[in-house]
Design a protein that fits this description.
Helix content is about 35%, strand content about 25%. The protein has about 425 residues and is of the alpha+beta class. It has a six-stranded mixed β-sheet, with helices on both faces. Strands 1, 13, 14, 17 and 18 form a five-stranded antiparallel β-sheet that branches. The chain has a four-stranded antiparallel β-sheet with strand order 6-5-7-8. It is globular.
Length: about 425
């Protein structure tokens, strides 16, 4: 018996040694292939420098190669030269000159993720999933994201012409948009709509968002809020940790909110709710649409997986990947996709989006003019009888917003059911 055990151990060690040798050999072959390919690149670089019709700066050649290399990976990875990297760092201030649109490359085309509310792009009618065909009559097909952003930005007051393909309407549209200073406001609106139903419109996830959100919640509670509509439509995302903090406001402590998975162990992360006293008894509807991306998808998906909220609207954009900015020695940087987001139930967000519990397409409700009583006395008698706010005090955007109306109906029904 003892001999058999020793023999088994020897065989095991032998198999392990053979496996280790095989892995080492495979790793050595990979390195040799890489060296040969780098040598190929070096040869091409030398030929261009010696034989090209004009003298070329070697840094320009290297930068061009890096841009092409990163662009070949996926639409979200890119090489940032020092100027572009500095522009990216400046964006964190939340104020810059431009049109007010979040863009990406989707299906090989420059695509609008969402227009930012109350910006030039929003006001002229740019929509999520619009394809930008031309910028100032220059075709965008071969542009990188970096080049497109540079062309879209400029001095406030200067116009830029966009040719847009709107596939949903099968139309080519022309827009002339005047650039402006873009100031990003996280909480766009916070108020009671009617019958104790609160409404918060969250437009982006930035460093100060959790504090602003808590202040908005406290304000609405004091005004008698007993149900909430969280509007994440056209919210392009922002900071991952901030999205987690917003989600944990409504989820029990120590629950998984989102996980990331990449090739390296260090990229496989899990984010849990840490709030001691979350809001668990407030009926909640979350509004999303095709302009809801990244951080807003994380919040909606977590609340949906835990059945903490009813998700209403249209399928979200499907931008569920993590980009890490890695600085390089000369002041440039790589913006590299390093992992993807997964919901608490393990569903992938990237290119799939969040499917609403209740699908309601965007639309406007045309309101008929209300006929007022002929006598002044009748008006006052009517107002005295009404316990709720008179209709003219309810904002028109609430009554004409199809998705918001459906959300209101759901919360009214939930409140009746709970009673």
């Amino acid at each position: 018996m003892r001999k058999k055990i020793i023999l088994g151990i020897i065989l095991g060690i032998g198999i392990l040694a053979i496996t280790s040798l095989s892995l080492a050999e495979l790793e050595r072959k990979k390195k040799e292939d890489l060296y040969r390919e780098v040598e190929l690149f070096s040869d091409a670089l030398a030929i261009i420098q010696s034989d090209f019709v004009s003298e070329v700066n070697s840094k320009d050649l290297i930068y061009g190669a890096l841009k092409g290399m990163l662009a070949s990976l996926d639409p979200h990875s890119q090489f940032l030269d020092p100027e572009t990297y500095n522009d990216l760092k400046a964006d964190t201030e939340g104020k810059f000159g431009g049109l007010g649109i979040e863009i990406t490359i989707k299906d090989g085309l420059l695509t609008v993720v969402t227009p930012i509310e109350d910006t030039p792009a929003w006001r002229v009618g740019i929509k999520a999933n619009d394809r930008i065909v031309k910028i100032d009559n220059e075709l965008s097909r071969d542009m990188t994201l970096t080049e497109a952003v540079r062309k879209l930005r400029g001095k406030p007051g200067e116009p830029v012409n966009l040719t847009i393909l709107r596939e949903s309407e099968k139309k080519i549209l022309e827009f002339k948009i005047v650039r402006d200073i873009i100031r990003i406001k996280d909480i766009k609106d916070a108020r009671i709509l009617q019958n104790g139903i609160g409404y918060i419109r969250l437009t982006e996830f930035r460093e100060g968002t959790p504090q602003q959100f808590d202040a908005a919640i406290e304000k609405l509670k004091k005004e008698g809020m007993d149900a909430l509509i969280l509007d994440l439509r056209n919210n392009p995302g922002g900071l991952l940790d901030v999205a987690v903090k917003i989600a944990e406001r409504f989820i029990e402590k120590d629950r998984l909110i989102v996980s990331t998975q990449g090739r390296k162990g260090g990229q496989n992360l899990k984010f849990f709710s840490r709030l001691e006293r979350p809001i668990l008894d407030l009926p909640l509807v979350v509004l999303i649409n095709a302009g809801s991306a990244s951080g807003s998808e994380i919040v909606a998906a977590a609340l949906q997986d835990y059945k903490r909220a009813i998700i209403l609207g249209e399928r979200s954009f499907g931008k569920g990947s993590v980009q890490t900015v890695i600085p390089l020695s000369d002041g440039s940087a790589l913006r590299l996709t390093t992992s993807k987001y997964f919901t608490p139930q393990g569903k992938e967000i990237h290119e799939k989006g969040v499917i609403p519990d209740i699908l309601v397409e965007e639309g406007r409700i045309e309101l008929a003019e209300e006929k007022l009583p002929e006598k002044i006395d009748e008006i006052f008698q009517t107002l005295k009888k009404e316990e709720k706010k008179p209709l003219e005090e309810i904002p028109a955007d609430y009554r004409s917003d199809n998705q918001l109306m459906r959300a209101m109906d759901i919360l009214k029904a939930l409140k009746i059911y709970r009673k």
